[in-house]
Amino acid sequence: MIEVLNLIQRANNGLLLFGAIHSEDEMWAALLLAKHLQWPVVADILSGLRLRKLLTSFSDIERNFIFVDNLDHALLSDSVKGWLRIDVVIQ
């Protein structure tokens, strides 16, 4: 666990990749992690975050996060691949 925390603390360009989230508690935990780390979020459609269904009644929350939609499509571009310098991904 300490190794993981050290890796996160040393990260310059982190990315959070959220897959399937099954409960509202898990969704809030994911959002709290994103808020704490201030890393961009790539949300799988199964997470519920991609559609921002939980955030609709909390519009100020979405402004505190950077959501990257359709990253899989963006990575098809050589210029995006050259620009993107992610050193740590938490999935």
TrEMBL record:
Superkingdom of the organism of origin: Eukaryota
Name recorded for this polypeptide: Protein PHYLLO chloroplastic-like
Species of the source: Trifolium medium
